[in-house]
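To: structure subgroup
Subject: Chain for Friday's discussion

All,

I'm putting the inputs and outputs inline so they're searchable in the archive.
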Amino acid sequence: MGYDHAAMGRPARRQVNAKMIDVVFEISGGTLPVAYPYELWSELLKFVPQLEADEHAGVVPLRAAESKEGMLLPKRAKLAIRTKHELADEVSVLAHRLLRVAGIEVQLGACKTRPIQHYPTLHAQLVTGADDEVAFVAEIESALAAMGVEAKLICGRRRTLSDGERSISGYSLVLHDLNAEGSLQVQYAGLGGERRFGCGIFVPYKVISGLE
């Protein structure tokens, strides 16, 4: 379902957000539960409690093969934590740490920082918002307008992240036709809530066709 989000005479308003950076780690381990983000965030805070105070900080969703058993980490998998530049050194202490995520041992390896670059098309796995798709799109358009960002958007399927006790719902979302400034704004600030659990975090997206 496509929507054209255009600036039609609205006043331009710019919301300046602190620059963010991705701290990227090699990661290896077994099969994680689909709702791993809850346990992973708790484990990360044990080593880097400063992340709790960074409202835009979060974990970029892992690229893993999902099955009935859970999320199987592929070879050369990466864990990326998006945070302020000034917290990058604190986050880097996670290098070579052994984490326990939902009872599964996960080994982190070497880390490096990855500057966030602008791309015209971005994707987020799950953006929180209204249950109704039309209302959700209206919320996203309003949020983009408040940031002074112009983009076209494609709302994907509704998704739910649940561990049986906690539940977060929203839609997958693609933003395209972004200019350089708008692309960076969206990646720095994200959209919706629950960034710590990977929600509303945007990454480059190369293919629009075939979006679920």
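Points worth raising on Friday:
Residues 20-115 form a domain with the Alpha-Beta Plaits fold (CATH 3.30.70.1890).
Residues 13 and 145 are 7 Å apart (CA to CA).

D.
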